[in-house]
Specification:
Layout lengths: L4 H13 L1 H16 L9 H8 L6 H6 L4 E6 L14 H11 L3 E7 L5 H4 L8 H16 L6 E5 L5 H11 L5 E4 L10 H12 L5 H11 L11 H11 L15 H16 L10 H4 L2 H14 L5 H11 L6 H10 L14 H6 L2 H11 L8 E2 L2 E2 L6 E6 L2 E6 L23 E6 L2 E6 L9 E9 L2 H9 L7 E5 L4 H4 L8 H9 L4 E5 L12 E6 L16 E5 L4 E5 L26 H6 L12
Parallel strand pairs: 1-2, 1-3, 3-4, 11-12, 12-13, 13-14
Antiparallel strand pairs: 5-6, 7-8, 9-10, 10-14, 11-15, 15-16
Helix pairs in contact: 1-16, 5-12, 7-8, 8-15, 9-10, 9-21, 11-14, 14-16
Length: 601
Amino acid sequence: MALNQTIAAVTDRIRSRSADSRAAYLDLMSRAEAAGPRRAHLACGNQAHAYAAMGQDKDALIAEKAPNIGIITAYNDMLSAHQPYETYPDQIRAAARAVGATAQVAGGVPAMCDGVTQGQTGMELSLFSRDVIALAAGVGLSHNTFDAALYLGVCDKIVPGLVMAAATFGYIPSIFLPAGPMTSGIANDEKAKVRQKFATGEASRAELMASEMASYHGPGTCTFYGTANTNQMLMEFMGLQLPGSSFVNPGTSLRDALTTQAVHRAAAITALGNAFTPTYKVLDEKAFVNGLVGLMATGGSTNLVLHLPAMARAAGIILDLQDFSDISNVVPLMAKVYPNGLADVNHFHAAGGLQYMIGNLLEQGLLHRDVTTVAGEGLDLYTQEPIVQDGTLVWRDGPTTTLNDKILRPASDPFNHHGGLTQLSGNLGRGVIKVSAVAPERHIVEAPCRVFNDQASVKTAFQNGEFTADTVVVVRFQGPKANGMPELHSLTPTMAVLQDRGLRVALVTDGRMSGASGKVPAAIHVSPEAADGGPLARLRDGDIVRLDATQGTLEVLNVDLSTRAVATADLTGNGTGVGRELFEVFRRNVGRATEGAAVVL
């Protein structure tokens, strides 16, 4: 089928909007590529320092005839998703030697967990950690001794930061290596019920802890479809991971085989191999549009509305909220994975997963087929699934029909004909709302607002029984300039309880919600933020706010905000404690949420 007209038009619009910045980027990359393999430019003393501890690989490194692969790792054993990476470097080095290559850990990057910091002070560093990761990866690769890079990262800010680095070093190839999701534990909806009971005092802390531990119980990503698993989807749709590699559990023979194959492929696509594929040829406008399509078709995390523009800018490409909204209008919601449904990513993968979805979207003309990927030319490669057959990794045709239509449906018979992400604009600014898990009768909320300057005050008001009527809860001074734009996901149980009591409620904020945000309508990333003098800073308790996800509007009614003074908040406490002192320069220089809230680009 021919490419969908809207997909083509959005791609052309992005290409036109990005013409100057993309041209400058491509010129920079082509000049760096023309300089040839990196190590050729190092003096003997430079190289001696780099190879001093490399033991049996020294001769190969000195000869400069074998590709040297740099490993950027986000390993730590505090994150379940990243704990499996502990053993990857040894496996990668062995796999590289098997094809006459070498590999070195070029550097580590931080990897913080929003699950650990949710509702805590440390969450105020979370978004900025993405830029730190990009910077740290840049330091690792700056030694200029690598012919390709392998990126070991999975979770929320880690993958976007690594993609920003990969684009910056786009003159060498990059392959992303996932670690996979943990096996299924307690059902996610059961976990959510216990959280809501705890919020109302119906469950004890011991019951809550038992529920949480039964959900987050082993190595791998959390199994709900939040930001971490959305990242993994994105890397396949954009051609930066091997086909079918996203949702294979850690510690399996297939997981190990895919890691080994990624190393072999990385060696093959270097300038010293036979299929040179520098990253800048993978990360083009079509790849990012394919990523947007995947985001909508899977009902992915709203955090990617922040991350994709930042990632794209690193490759000279400018995305706008309108691009997200237009693609959402034509890409159907094909998956029901928690919080959009009861299934987890393991169930989704078993039902046909990304291979079925990519094949079906290609058939419907909703994806660019003619793209360059790390696996080769064309997105059709990503309709194939890997298996270990007689001890050997092979790819076979993926499923062409869904194996569970309660989890995964064809684009012709989707769960919703809308991708579930809508741009909001009006006299309160620009933002987004994810409606894929919100009941249609709640897509419009019009009610008096209650204005809060932090999420703790919302919880206090709830505990005091102050919410007795329909309410739009406004939580402002939560943007990147104010306090680093923490997730406000800890408000979800509170808001859900109010909704379950029969109230019409909504959240409006210049902060962000988790990739697990669900059934309560939430206008997020509202920009300009309150700390930047945005309209939210002029709202007062009792103003009538209308959130209309059907029309894409966010407005205060019958109030001329221009006649009001801008409210201020005491933000001095946001600058100290738990490392916040170190990030003052980030808060001062961060861009708007609508542009990705980036600091380094």
